[in-house]
Write a structure and sequence with these properties.
With 422 residues, this protein is α/β, with parallel strands linked by helices. Helix content is 30%, strand content 21%. It has three domains: 12-64, Alpha-Beta Plaits; 91-271, 3-Layer(aba) Sandwich (Rossmann fold), CATH 3.40.50; 298-421, Rossmann fold (3-Layer(aba) Sandwich), CATH 3.40.50.1220. The chain has helices at residues 23-27, 53-57, 72-90, 109-125, 139-148, 166-180, 191-204, 316-327, 335-340, 370-375, 405-421; strands spanning 12-13, 33-35, 41-43, 63-64, 96-99, 102-103, 106-107, 129-135, 152-157, 184-188, 208-212, 214-217, 224-230, 235-239, 247-251, 268-271, 303-307, 330-333, 360-364, 381-386, 399-402. The strands form six sheets. The chain has a seven-stranded parallel beta sheet with strand order 11-15-10-5-8-9-16, with helices on both faces. Strands 18-17-19-20-21 form a five-stranded parallel beta sheet. Strand 8, helix 5 and strand 9 form a beta-alpha-beta unit. Helix 6 (166-180) packs across helix 7. It is flat.
């Protein structure tokens, strides 16, 4: 490694790998790192003290630095003690657990999607799938959880759980997880799931990775490998929680695929006791639906015609709506269209919008940023119409049509109408 004039070994930036996230700039304790005019980090070797913190925090490995290895018996003993402590912290945990979130008087779709993924993970680890169900009068939903793939469902029914409140649900789920001790806990990245997951992870003193797009597990170590977009979607990060249990993750609806429902499937329903005072809980005066009658829930349509920046004008909407109507679908949009005010936020597909999994996705003028591609990866068929043959969305499209949408879409409508008449 290079040294400065003081003889200190200093870190180096690999400019081709740097993404300009500025994490190293904030982490450097002596202010030795700045971004140059090209947006790439540079280290002043004379200011660098060789602490290596920049290398530790760089998410893309763009810092070259090798710390001196611990020497002697003291370093070896310390390492062994840390290993023993970590092994003790994760021992005694078993099973892939899913929080069964309710949607009115039934289980939410995201719950069954996560049970399907938990089933896959459990097969790798040769372990069981556990469901955690909170509420009142929900035994039938517990049986549904078994039909969707749970080996056992821990049911906690209580009057204080008839409505969702952070205090009551946070206390109840924390107690359940602490009793059952699953090695993994999956929750939906819904409004309720995001709120509840943070509470439970904090109380259990464990890690939580939010908005994951892919989950896998190492068969030997049992580490849950949780992948999600990070740094504005510039990279995909795979995160794992080595020293704490349970390993917790939230996943958006429509990202995972539900398994096959088997009403004949057998599993155990275990009723749990819970002591909780209702004093101090708020009272629900009025409940408002998340989607009003005037709004369109794009996640429920089998076909989506999605307007991108390349079709970001009000004149294009009637054309796209005509195509969507022919296919029995709805018109959605990418972020630039929503930000322009042409379509409401409720129609936005993407990391800051909705994750969708239609049978047919037609992207019209959609460039295909990583945030958008992640949100449509569950689509059965993807058709992209774009004037740019290098558009990122073409990397994942089943069919790519290079051309002006103002000519392509009318031709699609014309041919569809002819087939419908024949």
């Amino acid at each position: 490694m290079p040294k400065n004039s003081k003889g200190i070994e200093v870190a180096e930036i690999l400019p081709d790998q740097c993404i300009g996230c500025q994490i190293c700039v904030a982490e450097c304790p002596v202010g030795a790192i700045e971004l140059n005019e090209e947006g790439v980090a540079e280290i002043d070797p004379e200011l660098c003290v060789g602490c290596g913190k920049c290398a530790d925090v760089c998410p893309v490995g763009a810092v070259s630095f090798q710390k001196a290895k611990a020497k002697g018996k003291v370093g070896a003993k310390r390492k062994e003690k840390e290993k023993e402590k970590a092994e003790e912290a994760v021992s005694g945990y078993e099973g892939m657990a899913v929080f069964i979130e309710l949607d009115g008087d039934k289980g939410g779709d995201v719950a069954w999607e996560l049970v399907g993924k938990a089933r896959e993970l459990a097969e790798v680890r040769q372990t069981k799938v556990i469901g955690f169900l909170l509420g009142s009068d929900c035994r039938e939903i517990a049986r549904e959880a078994v039909a969707w793939g749970c080996d056992e469902v821990h049911l906690l029914e209580h009057p204080g759980l008839s409505q969702y409140f952070s205090a009551s649900y946070g206390e109840a789920l924390t107690q359940l997880v602490d009793r059952v001790r699953p090695e993994v806990l999956l929750m939906g990245a819904t409004h309720q799931g995001r709120d509840l997951a943070g509470i439970v992870a904090t109380r259990l003193n464990t890690g939580l990775t939010a908005d994951c797009t892919e989950l896998s597990i190492d068969e030997d170590s049992g580490l849950l490998l949780m992948t999600r977009p990070t740094f504005g979607g510039n990279i995909m990060a795979t995160i794992y929680c080595e020293n704490y249990r349970p390993q917790m993750s939230t996943v958006r609806p429509r990202v995972m695929q539900a398994g096959d429902r088997d009403p004949e499937r057998e599993g155990a329903i275990r009723e749990q006791e819970w002591e909780f005072t209702l004093q101090g809980l708020p009272r629900v005066v009025e409940s408002v639906s998340e989607v009003s009658a005037e709004e369109v829930d794009i996640s429920q349509y089998p076909v989506l015609v999605v307007a991108g920046k390349g079709a970001c004008d009000e004149q294009s909407l009637p054309l796209l709506q005509e195509l969507a109507d022919l296919l029995g679908g709805a018109v959605a949009c990418s972020r630039p269209v929503a930000e322009s005010g042409i379509l409401p936020y409720e129609r936005q597909v993407g990391q800051t919008g909705k994750t969708v999994a239609p049978k047919l996705y037609i992207g019209v003028g959609v460039s295909g940023a990583i945030q958008h591609r992640v949100a449509i990866q569950g689509s059965e068929k993807i058709v992209a119409v774009n004037t740019d043959p290098e558009a990122a969305i073409l990397q994942i499209a089943d069919v790519g049509i290079i051309g002006d949408y103002a000519r392509v879409i009318p031709e699609m409508i014309k041919q569809m109408r002819e087939r419908m008449r024949s």
